[in-house]
Amino acid sequence: MPGRSVVVVGYDGVELLDVACVTSGFDHANRRGISPPYEVTLASPIGRPIRCDTGLEIRAQSRLDSITGAVDTLIVSGGLGYVEAAADDRLVAHLRRLAPRSRRVASVCTGATVLAAAGLLDGRRATTHWFYADELARRFPAVRVDAAPVYVRDGPVATSGGVTAALDLTLAFIEEDHGARVAREVALGLVTYLQRPANQAQMSMYLRLPSPENRTVRRMIDHVVTHLGEDLSGAPLATALGVSERQLSRLCLEHIGLSPARFVRLARLDAVTRLLTDSAEPLTAVARACGFASAETLRQTFVARYGISPSRFRAAHQSTGDGNFLSPPRDRVQTV
Questions:
Q1: How far apart, in whole angstroms, are the C-alpha atoms of residue 21 and residue 196?
Q2: Total-model pTM
Q3: If we measure between CA atoms, which residue out of 21, 25, 26 comes closest to residue 36?
Q4: What secondary structure letter does DSSP report for 37?
Q5: Helix residue ranges per DSSP H, 99-214
Q6: CA distance 330 to 311
Q7: Using one digit for the tens of pLDDT, what is the confidence trace for 83-129?
């Protein structure tokens, strides 16, 4: 029986992990005896060895122009060479040629810029490494860029965030093709999380925020994260900081780009994700500790933000205590 053809596109300046997470993930699936197996090919524009952005070289197995038949999965890697790759007319033309012949098309990290250059993300929602998201949105306004998720599926096109998010996307593909059990076994073999939910943020909100120079805003952040279970609505929060609500709102918008209410909501959700991952506290206790009126309010807010229920998020991130991960949820891929 013929295998599922997977073409991984590389170029000079590619990130080695962007390639390895994909190829190793599919290889570990093959070791589980799946049928049909994956037939993975690393292709470059002219078939020559690819110099990674670390300076290491890997050998391409094929030239892009030699791939003429149907492709099951076409994946464009990311890396520091993405600007030159997106400007390579031959590479972009091959992507346009191969995409209609592919069951699904995907990118890892800054590979989204290469897909966008080929027009394959026009009108679609997409993600990339958070650091490069603004650039992608600026260069390609037809793409609906969302920097937050680990990966996004919009029809037959998938895009993932930075580096190891490639593994989350690969596990999603494996589960789609061969079921949750195989994806679980691959994750265990690779000693990784079963799979982060698609809508999980690529990084903590505190790392994404600019470092505020304003002393009042810094005090507000410290106060919020140490008093999450208390009343942090506009007036009480402003009073605790010794400023007016209007002044606090102005300062927050100016220095961190968020209103006080939005910052409080995001801070509470960030704390919820950590408690769901690191503790066995019931949802009612988590809600109370993080300032939500009830477990149901927390559940609704969490689903609206992450597209997954708190219980499913917890199941995907915690172990059973005997060394075996819990069964993964079925709805990890965020589709549009």
A1: 14
A2: 0.65
A3: 26
A4: P
A5: 111-117, 133-139, 165-178, 180-189, 205-208
A6: 13
A7: 999 999 999 999 999 999 999 999 999 999 999 999 999 999 999 98
Q: Long-range contact list for 251-254, CB < 8 A, 24+ apart?
A: 251/214, 251/216, 251/217, 252/217, 252/220, 254/214
Rounded to the nearest 5 degrees, what angle is found at the Cα of 312, between the Cα atoms of 307 and 263?
50
156-184 residues labelled b (16+ CB within 10 A) or e (exposed): ebbbbbbbbbbbbbbbbbbbebbebebbb
Q: And the tokens for 34?
A: 């799946």
At 7 the three-state DSSP class reads strand
Give the H or E element holding residue 158: strand 157-160
Number of neighbours of residue 293 by Cβ within 10 angstroms: 9
Beta strands 4-9 and 71-76, pairing class? parallel
CA distance 168 to 170: 5
> Which two three-digit tokens encode residue 65?
């122009």
